[in-house]
Write a structure and sequence with these properties.
Blueprint (H helix, E strand, L loop, with lengths): L1 H30 L8 E2 L13 E4 L9 E5 L7 E2 L14 E3 L9 E4 L8 E2 L14 E3 L9 E4 L8 E2 L13 E4 L9 E5 L1
Antiparallel strand pairs: 1-3, 2-3, 4-6, 5-6, 7-9, 8-9, 10-12, 11-12
């Protein structure tokens, strides 16, 4: 009887220790924003646990399928970059990793080598002809692979807008189309409220 009572008490102690450990883990996980810095990520499961924009997933080296940790992208203008290592040191969107010519696998620096507003762009060729940061490559509709022109994103602050034409030239969320007073159907400019 004494042995049975000891086993029951030991089992209860183990259960409460596990419960306390699980509660601590869940409190620790709640303090880390999902997909943000320090958040868990895993692209080898379905649905994948992805990192938020501006973060990338760092996994243990050589452990395929293992979960990783979301770390901020460090590839800002002038930062070191290298796509030939794992995990890669990537540049932020709109920047290009420029490496020394003729040195395979060498690190480079993140640079804004894109075309200026009105310049030619084409993402369907290699190497891509990109636009500078903050510009969008606008290609002719229905002509796949065609070169385009670098323009400010449609509907951005200061862009032309007109809701009385089809298709409408709309403003991005958080902006309003200010038109000349009393001129119906006229184009306006996207401005902050």
């Amino acid at each position: 009887m004494r042995l049975l009572l000891s086993i029951i008490l030991a089992g209860t102690a183990m259960f409460s220790a596990c419960k306390t450990s699980n509660e601590a883990a869940s409190l620790r996980d709640a303090s880390v924003e999902a997909g943000g810095k320090g958040g868990e990520c895993n692209y080898s499961i379905y649905p994948p646990k992805a990192c938020k924009e501006g973060f990338h997933c760092v996994t243990p080296e050589g452990v395929y399928g293992a979960p990783g940790t979301c770390e901020p992208d460090s590839g800002d203008l002038g930062a070191e970059c290298n796509y030939s290592i794992y995990p890669p040191k990537a540049c932020q969107e709109g920047l290009t990793c420029v490496t020394p010519p003729g040195v395979s696998g060498a690190p480079g620096t993140c640079q804004d080598t894109g075309a200026k507003e009105g310049g030619e762009c084409n993402y369907s060729i290699y190497p891509a002809k990109a636009c500078k940061r903050g510009l969008t490559c606008v290609t002719p509709p229905g002509v796949y692979g065609a070169a385009g022109k670098c323009q400010k994103p449609a509907g951005g602050e200061g862009s032309e807008c007109n809701y009385s034409i089809y298709p409408p030239k709309a403003c991005q969320e958080g902006l309003v189309c200010k038109t000349p007073p009393g001129v119906y159907g006229a184009s306006g400019k996207c401005t902050r409220e």
